[in-house]
Amino acid sequence: MPHASFRTTLLLTVLLIAGALGAAAASGWIMLQDFARASREAGSGALNLTSAMQQIDERSLDMARSARQYAVLRDDGLRLRYDEAQTQALASLATMTATLPQIAPHADTWRRTEAQLRAVFDLPAEAAVDDALPDLATINDRLAAGVREAIDGRNAALLDTLESSRDTLATQVLAAIALALLLAVATGWWILRPLKRVEQAIARLGEGQFSTPVQVGGPADLRRLGEKLEWLRLRLADLETHRNRVLRHVSHELKTPLASIRLSVDAMSAPHQDEADQRRRGRILSLIHI
């Protein structure tokens, strides 16, 4: 800022400090918004997964009940009920697998177990049905455990992100504060140093020291003030030189008359003077006075 004025310098400094602090605040606001969005998405995802898991549990229970009843009653309506429950369960399972790919092995196990359970409907009417039908409940428990583990992992990752964002924000705030302090100190030094020189120059002029040139840097208006002080120094130095010259001239011009007056006064005050001599010297002093 070599050509900036005092007012411009202060304005730029304030804007830079406000910009640094504002950038830190904006970064914190963005991080908070990202965390809030991630939290909402994680909460919504957990709710959807829990709802899908509950749907699979309920439909699995309906499927097992329909298969057992069909094995006894051979009612085609029970098969239709089974198909409806299976469709809903598979849809929920597909949603869970798309959201959590890590539970895909459990999902495949569930599908194989469901295929074994569905085989009951393909048995001839006279075939005996084994009482130990495939149990989907155990597979559902594994699915539920995988879902809980995945949700816990997401929550832990979210907390880690929050910790990292907090550390990053703290670093940015400290950096912004340090930058603001650095700008304030630099601007203060750049402004106060020429003000100190102005003060010293005024003190020298007041003491009659006109030999040292006035040099003031810093903002443009302070430099102009330094130029005015330098002009004043030169003017005062010139007036001082002129005054001394006049005093020397006056002293030279008055030296001879004053010497004569002094000699006359000394003569009048000398002892053993007659009256005529005193009157003569008085007339001489009167003429000199006139």
Care to give the gist of this entry?
This protein has 290 residues and is mostly helical.
Largest beta-sheet details? none
Q: What is the rounded Rg?
A: 54 Å
Determine the strand fraction and express it as a percent band.
under 5%
Average pLDDT level: 79
Which range best describes the helical content: under 10%, 10-25%, 25-40%, 40-55%, 55-70% or over 70%?
Answer: over 70%
Question: What's the overall geometry?
Answer: rod-shaped
Low-confidence stretches: none
Number of helices: 6
Straight-line distance between termini: 69 Å
Structural class: mainly alpha
What letter string, H or E per element, gives the SSE order?
A: HHHHHH
Instruction: Give a count of the beta strands, DSSP E runs of length 2 or more.
Output: 0
Explain what the structure shows.
The longest helix has 71 residues, at 136-206. The chain has helices spanning 6-73, 76-99, 104-118, 136-206, 220-268, 275-289. By secondary structure, it is mainly α. Helix 4 (136-206) runs parallel beside helix 5. It contains six helices and no strands. It is rod-shaped, with a radius of gyration of 54 Å. The model has no long low-confidence stretch (mean pLDDT 79). It is 83% helix and 0% strand.
Layout of SSEs?
Layout: H1 6-73, H2 76-99, H3 104-118, H4 136-206, H5 220-268, H6 275-289
Helix pairs in contact: 1-2, 1-4, 2-3, 3-4, 4-5, 5-6
